[in-house]
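Hey, resending since the last one bounced:
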Amino acid sequence: MDRKTLEMLILTALRRKHFSHAVDLAFTYGYRTADTIPTGLDIWLKDTQLLNLMFSNTPALLASVPGEVLDQMRLIAGLMHLLGDEQPIQVARAASDTVPGTHIGSRWAPRMLISHANFLLSMENFREHISTRPHLYLKVRHAEDELVCPSCRELAQFRFKINDFFELPNPLCTCTKGCRCHVHPVL
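The structure tokens again:
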């Protein structure tokens, strides 16, 4: 099967919210791999959970994006995640260089959906393990380059408890590539 046909099949599965089928297609045609079957099942489950979170949650940073644009961004983000490609088929083209309702470039905005879903999965995982590590804190780290905005730099100054409310991507981020912050556990 050629690449374009596979992209269209995955895109159809994502539109229908058949996430397990989309993940199956990516595994079947070699875009998602695992060394062993147990690892593969773990990756399959995580990918399915991530897609479900991506399609059912909107980060505050993208709250002003019109619904139809957000839906298209979810499809692009799903393809990017499953195919690991920097340039998936273009199912949506913004009228300008930025996504409507944001300051973020259209090339970078779908990554905010992936980042948010990964953040939500990480927080679930941290909450599951808090009983075994009661002194666990979370620290936000930014990309550590000249493109990081003051808000992301400030967020990285704090330590958070598991039950503290904060969100990634940073809702106050003004980075043109969008928020590239991620969370790490610290003791």
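The chain has a mean pLDDT of 89.

Sorry for the duplicate.
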